[in-house]
Amino acid sequence: MSKILIIEDEAAIRRVLSKILAEESDSYKIEEAEDGQQGIEKIKNDDFDLVLCDIKMPKMDGVEVLEAIKKIKPEIPFVMISGHGDLETAVQTMRLGAFDYISKPPDLNRLLNTVRNALDRKTLVVENKMLKKKVSKNYEMIGSSEPINLIKDIIEKVAPTDARVLITGPNGTGKELVAHWLHEKSERNAAPFIEVNCAAIPSELIESELFGHVKGAFTSAVKDRAGKFEAADKGTIFLDEIGDMSLPAQAKVLRALQENMIQRVGAEKDIKVDVRVIAATNKDLKKEIEEGRFREDLYHRLAVILIKVPALNDRRDDIPELISHFSDKIAGEQGTSRKQFSDSAVKLLQEYDWTGNIRELRNVVERLIILGGSEISENDVKLFASK
């Protein structure tokens, strides 16, 4: 059933609209409100798929109703009902987010087409939101321990915003998975997700890599080249191991965050970019600041939201789930049957000191699957997973 609310102060027009819609489809459930205030209360307390709203009403006009509802339930399409003298205002409501407007007295075909199109649009918006909440299987965060559930809760709250996030934690804990989750659950997930490993790029090349360069900027600059910030426009840039970035590059990143502007190496022209920045590091940035290797102002720009990813030793309860996940994944990659791990084998792996974290566990699981028996036993673990 599609729930439609008619907000109209003239009872005769409400009756006509309700009758037309009811005769069009028995899948329409129609409710009425006699003024704007009553309409807002109904929308606050119930879910509607479409609102037909008169513009000129006592107490509160249709423009005010539209503005109020767009703040709390922006996904609801509004079709404005306008008299001849209201056409200019009706056009204005389109700029405020109304789906369309129909004139009084309503033309039957025009009304029904508008209603059908508005309901189709609402369905697409809802489906799109549901898709955005799904994260690619490649970037699942496996585990249900308290530390991991806390991170998942933070992601759900932070991802839809454009807040910058700094992810900290030891190597191999899955900081890049957190970054992917933040992007895929955001409103930017249809745009690029650009990863930059700051530790893997020589310091003399990092500025060119991030911001691009113009021809002749340096010896090997044989043509203009866009950088990672431009490539990530409208999307997300993930600055991994940002603690290894040089101070000159940090200064340019700071400017990009402050002004949403970048400048290619060797150029004088500024380029506007719309990029969400997520950064990660395994270093203690506060210590790096004290020792003069990291800019304090950049730290505060990046660390709007802090997410600390725990070491595997601090989330041992997740190891059985991780072993199962890696077993499935490795079997799929190798085209073999999935091997089971005995309870005693899993328990022994839970007791290990995982200095390499999730990355090390994944390697050990793969080694056991290749070298172990048809079921991975405690003895297999002692033989092939010894530290």
UniProtKB/TrEMBL annotation:
One of its GO terms (molecular function) is ATP binding. It comes from Flavobacterium beibuense. One of its GO terms (biological process) is regulation of DNA-templated transcription. This is Two component sigma-54 specific Fis family transcriptional regulator. Residues 3-119 form the Response regulatory domain. The modification 4-aspartylphosphate is found at D54. SMART domains: AAA (SM00382), REC (SM00448). Signal peptide: none annotated. Residues 141-370 form the Sigma-54 factor interaction domain. The keyword Translocase does not apply. Keywords: ATP-binding, Nucleotide-binding, Phosphoprotein, Transcription, Transcription regulation, Two-component regulatory system. The keyword Nucleotide-binding applies. It comes from the Bacteria.
